[in-house]
Amino acid sequence: MRRPDLDHLTVPALPVSLPSRESLQASLDQLPALGDLPASLPARSSLPAAPKVPEWVPITPFQAKVALLSIRSLIGVLGWLFPNLSGRLFGIDPAQNPAAPYLGRLFAARELALVAPLLVEDEDVQRRSLQVGMAVDAADAAASVAAGVTGTLPKRAALLTGVTAVIALLLGWIATSDD
């Protein structure tokens, strides 16, 4: 569509020129070869250590890891196969939000992706996965609070999703306490 009333406007030129192919190639040539990179990540994270789990906590780190693996797997499989049902279980009505099944499947895929590293025998991989999972669970809990406060989720749904995220966060914390 032509707009004669805008013909007097000009498109400004970009102030920055694009790098040449040669300069891009030179930058790539400065990167280390794939074979020169370490085969694995360092054993310990540079993040500060989490507080110690109190002695009175009734489950062991292994039990917490198995519980977390089970919960994430259940949420992931049910969320992927039956997104409407799992949405209703968390208090989200798919009839009021037609995008809910799609978002539920995205959430389910993420849960399954967080489970997968827990199935390998490498303890460093498991520990890092648990740490990533704790960060994700903290973000989920914060999102649940925000959704409950702003009303973008019903209070029941915000409470259920928030409590689930906090439980997963606590299980992750207990599971990483055997380091």
Core attributes:
flat; mainly alpha; 179 residues
| Nearest-integer average pLDDT | 85
Estimated structural class: mainly alpha
Rg calc? 24 Å
Which percent bin holds the helix content? 55-70%
Order of helices and strands: HHHHHH
Shape: flat
Cα separation of the termini: 64 Å
Extended strand count: 0
Mind describing the biggest β-sheet? none
Low-pLDDT parts are none
Which band does the percent of strand residues land in? under 5%
User: What's the helix count?
Assistant: 6
Structure description:
There is one protein chain. The relative contact order is 0.13. The chain has helices spanning 21-29, 61-81, 83-89, 100-115, 123-150, 155-175. The chain has a domain at 61-178. The mean pLDDT is 85. By secondary structure, it is an all-alpha fold. Helices cover 57% and strands 0% of the residues.
SSE map:
Blueprint: H1 21-29, H2 61-81, H3 83-89, H4 100-115, H5 123-150, H6 155-175
Quick structural overview:
Helix content is 57%, strand content 0%. It is mainly alpha-helical. The N and C termini lie far apart (64 Å).
